[in-house]
Amino acid sequence: ETGVTQTPRHLVMGMTNKKSLKCEQHLGHNAMYWYKQSAKKPLELMFVYNFKEQTENNSVPSRFSPECPNSSHLFLHLHTLQPEDSALYLCASSQGTSARLLGYTFGSGTRLTVV
Amino acid sequence: GEDVEQSLFLSVREGDSSVINCTYTDSSSTYLYWYKQEPGAGLQLLTYIFSNMDMKQDQRLTVLLNKKDKHLSLRIADTQTGDSAIYFCAESTHDYKLSFGAGTTVTVRA
After folding, report:
1. Which of A65, B16, B52, B86 has the fewest C-beta atoms under 10 angstroms from its C-beta?
2. What is the pLDDT of residues A36-93, one digit of tens each?
3. Would you tell me how many other CB atoms lie within 10 Å of the CB of residue B71?
4. What is the average pLDDT value for chain B, to the nearest integer?
5. Alpha carbon A100 to chain centroid distance?
6. Which residues of B fall within a CB distance of 8 Å from A99?
7. Which residue of B has its CA nearest to A5?
8. How many C-alpha atoms does A95 have within 13 Å on its Cβ side?
9. Cβ neighbours of residue B50 under 8 Å, at least 6 residues apart?
10. A108: how many CB neighbours lie within 10 A of its CB?
11. Structure confidence by residue, pLDDT tens digits, A38-48
12. Is B18 at the interface with chain A, CB within 8 A?
């Protein structure tokens, strides 16, 4: 266990469904991130939250909606997704300015399949 | 801008050394990292190097940095089957942001 827990581990959803991914960290970190991992492509940074405030949105389509109710929890709400959104979604956290030295702590990811 | 490139695949015989290469474009990078991803898991920090260093050794791992050419490499000595994984190179130029490559899939054959 890394201290960053993601649920569910696997998710299959239809294009008209609404679902949510959850991430929880027990490390006392104040920054949290969503990344998308697709085969043979660099990890794509989607959203950054620092002290519950969104500080970055990398031109992510509105069918992905993040929510960060507190520094320990991060959600990614999904609706009307497309098959090309199928990927591994990774959550990470860091201790703010220590991110440079310690990098990020990642969860195990949610494998999403859109059918 | 930030752009990190790696070769996608590497096959190595058990017991040999593995060398994974990475190039980056942002000359203001201050920290560079290597992460490992095993099947079904997230990314795990393996090692990092400050941009004012040119080499760092940690047991079987050796990181070499050529800042002039913006080239980073990870050498794994005496590669074992447990080293089979995807290895990601990443650079950091801002407090809260890492940029990652596409990952190099290392396959260790007997």
Report:
1. B52
2. 999 888 889 999 998 888 887 888 999 999 999 999 999 999 999 999 999 999 999 9
3. 13
4. 91
5. 20
6. 92, 95-98
7. B42
8. 7
9. B30, B31
10. 21
11. 988 888 999 99
12. no
